[in-house]
Write a structure and sequence with these properties.
It is a single chain. The chain has about 130 residues and is of the alpha+beta class. Helices cover about 40% and strands about 10% of the residues. The strands form 2 sheets. It has a two-stranded antiparallel ribbon with strand order 1-4. A two-stranded parallel sheet has the order 2-3. The model is unreliable at about 125-130 (pLDDT under 50).
C-alpha cells in the first residue's frame, strides 16, 4: 500500500520499490481496500527483500512497515542514508468476518496514506494532490 500511495502522491524523480519479507500474492482484502481509493493492485506482483538486496540497487531512503510483533523480522537494507519505521498491523493477520477484515484494512490503508502524505510533503519537491 505504501508503494502505491508514494507512486501516486510524490512527484519526484525517485524510484519507489516495495518488498516483503517473502514474495507472495497480494492480500485480496488489500486489493479491495486500495480499489476504494482508485488504485488497482490486482495485477501487481510482489518481491522479497532478499530479491531487492540481490539486485544491487542503492536506496537513499528506506521506510519499513512492520507491526511491533514482527519488528525483529523487519528488513535491513544496506546503504540507506535515512531509515524510517512505521509500526502498523499486518492486514493478513486480521481475523473476523470479511467486513471486519476489510474495515481493519481500511484503517491501516488510511494511516499509510496519511503518513505518505506527510513524508512526501517533507521529502519531495511537489505533490500530485494535497
Amino acid at each position: 500500500m505504501a508503494e502505491a500511495f508514494l507512486k501516486r502522491e510524490c512527484m519526484s524523480d525517485c524510484v519507489i520499490e516495495s518488498a516483503g519479507l517473502e514474495a507472495a500474492v497480494i492480500n485480496p482484502v488489500v486489493i479491495e481496500a486500495m480499489r476504494e481509493k482508485g488504485i488497482d493492485l490486482s495485477q501487481k506482483s510482489t518481491q522479497s527483500v532478499e530479491q531487492v538486496i540481490a539486485s544491487g540497487k542503492q536506496f537513499t531512503d528506506v521506510i519499513t512497515v512492520c507491526d511491533d510483533a514482527a519488528a525483529e523480522r523487519c528488513p535491513f537494507i544496506p546503504g540507506a542514508q535515512t531509515r524510517e519505521h512505521w509500526s502498523l498491523p499486518d492486514p493478513s493477520a486480521f481475523v473476523g468476518t470479511a467486513e471486519e477484515r476489510l474495515e481493519g484494512t481500511r484503517k491501516v490503508r488510511d494511516e499509510i496514506e496519511r503518513r505518505v502524505l506527510q513524508w512526501c510533503a517533507a521529502n519531495c519537491g511537489s505533490l500530485v494532490r494535497a
